[in-house]
Amino acid sequence: MENTEKPFWDHLEELRSRLMSCLYVLLGASAIGYMVRAPILEFLKAPLFRALPPDKRHLYFTGLFDSFFNHLQISLIAGVFIGSPYFLHQIWSFVGPGLHRHEKRLALPFVVSGTIFFFSGAAFAYYL
Question: Within the chain, how many helices (H) and strands (E) appear?
Answer without folding.
Answer: 5, 0
